[in-house]
Fold this sequence. Notes:
heterodimer, A: mainly alpha, 6 helices, 0% strand, B: mainly alpha, 7 helices
Amino acid sequence: MSDQQSPWFMPAIFVGGLVFGLGLAISGMARPEVVLDFLQFDDFGLLFVMGGAAVVTGLAFFVATTVLDRAPLTGTAYARRVKEFDRNVVVGGVIFGVGWGLSGICPGAAYASVGIGNLPILWAIAGMFLGAYAQGYVRSRLANTAN
Amino acid sequence: MDAFTPLLASGLEGLFPRGILPYLVGGVLVGLGATIIYLSTGIIAGASTFLESTLSYVSGVERFNRYKYVQSRDWRVVFTLGIIAGAALWGFVLAPDPSAWTTDVQWWRLLGGGVLVGIGTRLGKGCTSGHGVCGVGSLSETSLVNVATFMAFAIGTAQLVAALGVSP
């Protein structure tokens, strides 16, 4: 994370988001039905979405961390995405998995779904904000009690 | 080659009724979008942090007002608007049949699933893009465990919902 220094910072973020959203729409991930088809083993295409995306970003991480130095627009040093492991990683994964299996929708795909004109997806987005708020509220309260 | 086409098709059609190309092209573009942001800014973009960082605009709850959220909330809004715009570009302009598309999944499933997705992705430090794409691309053990966990439970839940006769 770093401060934006360049006038190109926001445009780069937007273009990245644009290509990201284009991919979610073309692949069908913006349609809950397509995701549910995968989870119910009727269509295994989603393996190519996550696989294809992970291979591309994996290449970028590898090249950037071994050959390149710093990001041109921010001066941030390139790093891999490595988050600390704790129990929450598993508990969160379980809760997210049940929600994904029930609705066929995950955050990025939900935003993309708005773009393809799918208004009912606003139910899912409202739910995500509610869930994110609830866990933030509870965790902040717990942190305060602990102190 | 022509002789093999029916053979290939019969085997793959069961697994990939919509073909493979749109999935592969879409996946590569998702990765490319994350790569554009990463190479230009060094930022590893995830889609679910937006939920918490955006709440900091309207909520005083401590967790949402952590430095890294408040500091990144503006570009996360731009990232999300970009995702919406990119999907609209496909759905309304480039798609073979440009038009709005509406899901048949029931509102209560979207809402209830959404709540669980909101809790689970934030508790588990990421979602399909952060852990699934960037984390797996980083060969992060934390992300691989998270992805294996949410995949297993998503498959189990979706199969159960289908078995109970709820459709789509």
